[in-house]
Amino acid sequence: MYLALYRKWRPKVFSDVVSQEHITQTLQNQVRLGKTAHAYLFTGSRGTGKTTCSKILAKAVNCLHPVDGNPCLECEICRGIEDGSILDVTEMDAASNNGVDDIRDLRDEASYTPSVCKYRVYIIDEVHMLSTSAFNALLKIMEEPPPHVLFILATTEIHKVPQTIISRCQQYDFRRIRPVDIADRLLTVSSQEDFTLTEDAARLIARLADGGMRDALSLLDQCVAFSDHVDMEVVASTAGIAGSEQIFALAEAILSRETGTALRLVSELYENAKGIDRLCSEMIAHFRDVLLCRSVSDPAELVVCLPDELERLKQQAASVSLDRLMDVLSGFQHCLDNLGRSVNKKVEMEMTVIRLCSAETTSVPQKTAQPAVDTAALTARIAELERMVSAGLQTARAPSPRPAEVSRPAAAPDAEVLSGKIEPLPQWAGLLQELAVKEPALYVLLQDSTAARSGNVVLIQSPNAMLKKLLLADNIGARLADIVEEKLGRRHRLRVVKKEQQEASGTSAALDDILQKAATRNVEIHVRE
C-alpha cells in the first residue's frame, strides 16, 4: 500500500526534526540525563513537528538502548511503539474524545503500572478542544501524577488552554519552519525517491507551505501524482496559483493604473481555474515583497524568492512611492476580508482592481484616528468664509436650534461670569481630538488653540486672527458651544483672544489681564437657551 510522503518521511529521532533545534536539543539532553518532566505542552502552528516530537520522546524515555538521548529504533519497545502494538503509549485526539468521561477513563487507567514500558505515556493532541469538565478531570491527575506516567499535550491554540494546566507543564513553542529548510528537506526526499524536483519548484512549495513541513510534503505528493518531473509550472498548476510572470504583469498594470489590462489579467486567471482567494493572497504576498524592497536596503533575508525575481521586485519598488504601495496593499487586504462574505468573488476582486487603478489615492474607506482631510477643499471653504465675513454678508440659511448672535459686553463684567477663579481647561485637548474626527473643518480653525475657564466663560486663545469672525458665520460658533456643553456638562459662553497676547507671561496675572481685556474689548459669543 502506498504511504504518503509526510508519513513515510516523518522524523524518527530528534536530529531529523527540522528547524526546532531549541526544542529537540533540550528534550534529548533531558532523556540522556534522566531528568524528564512529568508533563509537557507543545504549542505551535500546524505541521511544525509537535506530534512527531511527542512520539520520539515517548520512544526515547522507554527505549531499552537509547543512543545519546535518541531512541535506538531497533529494540522491541521502539518497534512496538512505532507499529502501535504496545498499549502503554496512548495517542488521544481531543477533538473527538473531549468529554469528561474520556478523561476519567484515562485517569483510571493511569493508576496502573505499565505492562511493558518504563513509562505509561499519554499523548493528547489538540488538547484545547477538551471541555471545561474534562480539563478539571485532567487537572486532578496532573497535580499529583503517578511516577510512571508522562503526559504530552499538543495544541495549536494555546490561549484556549487553562492556566492551571499550563502551569503544570514544561511548555515548548514550535516555530514555523524556515522556507530554506523546507526546500532543502524536499530536495533530500526527492533525491531518494523515483521522481525529480527542481530547486525553483522546491522553493515555491516551501513558500506556499507557510512554515509547515507536512503541508509542503503533501503538496509535493500531489505534484508527483501529476508529473514525475516537478518544476515550477507543475507546482503552479497543481496548487492553483498564478505564475510569477502573471503576478508581475498584474502588479505592473495596477501600479501603472492600466484598468483594462489589469481586469483582463484577472479574467484570464479566473478562467484558468485560479481561485480568487488564492490570487488575492498572492497579490498581498507580492506587494508585501515590493514594500520590503522599497523600505530596506538589503531585503534578501526578508523576501523568499529566486535571485532574478528579487531584482524585478527591486525595480518595481523603485518606480512607486511608499504611500502608493501601502494603499495598494491595504486595498487587497480589505478585499481578502470581504471575499468570505461576497456572493461573487470575482466581482469583489474586480471592484478592488478598479479602485486601485483609479485616480484616487485612497482605495479603501478606513476608520482612522486622524481622518483624511481634503486640504484644498477645506482651504477654499475657509477662504470663502473669510470673504463673507469681510464683506459683511449674512448667511441666509435656516437658523440652528441655538443660533449665535453678537453682542457687546457691559463695561462692568458680569459677576457670575468673571468673578470665578481662572483655571486651565484640561478637557480642551480631548475636545480637539474629537473635533479632528467629527468636525475636521472646525478642528482646522482651532488648531494650536488653548482654553481657560472662569465661571461660565470659556476663554479661547488662538493665533488665528479670523477665528472670532469665522465662529459667527454659518452658525459655527453655536456648533462649537454645543460641543463644549457636551464635553463640560453645562452651557458656557465663548470668548476669543489672540494667543500672542499671553506670550509675555504664563502667570495667572497675565490670564487675569487677558480675561479683563476680553470682557471689555473682544467679541463674545452668546447662545440663546
Question: How would you characterize this protein structure?
Answer:
- By secondary structure, the protein is α/β, with parallel strands linked by helices.
- It has helices at 5-8, 21-33, 50-62, 76-83, 100-110, 132-143, 163-166, 179-191, 199-209, 213-226, 232-239, 244-255, 259-271, 276-295, 307-318, 322-339, 345-357, 375-390, 415-418, 427-438, 440-446, 467-472, 476-488, 508-521; strands at 39-44, 89-93, 120-125, 149-155, 170-174, 196-197, 229-230, 404-407, 423-424, 450-454, 457-462, 493-498, 524-527.
- A 6-stranded mixed beta sheet has the order 8-13-12-11-10-9. Strands 2-3-4-1-5 form a 5-stranded parallel beta sheet, with helices on one face.
- It starts with a helix and ends with a strand.
- Residues 361-373, 393-419, 501-508 and 518-529 have low confidence and may be disordered.
Question: Could you give the topology of this structure?
Answer:
Layout: H1 5-8, H2 21-33, E1 39-44, H3 50-62, H4 76-83, E2 89-93, H5 100-110, E3 120-125, H6 132-143, E4 149-155, H7 163-166, E5 170-174, H8 179-191, E6 196-197, H9 199-209, H10 213-226, E7 229-230, H11 232-239, H12 244-255, H13 259-271, H14 276-295, H15 307-318, H16 322-339, H17 345-357, H18 375-390, E8 404-407, H19 415-418, E9 423-424, H20 427-438, H21 440-446, E10 450-454, E11 457-462, H22 467-472, H23 476-488, E12 493-498, H24 508-521, E13 524-527
Parallel strand pairs: 1-4, 1-5, 2-3, 3-4, 6-7, 11-12
Antiparallel strand pairs: 8-13, 9-10, 10-11, 12-13
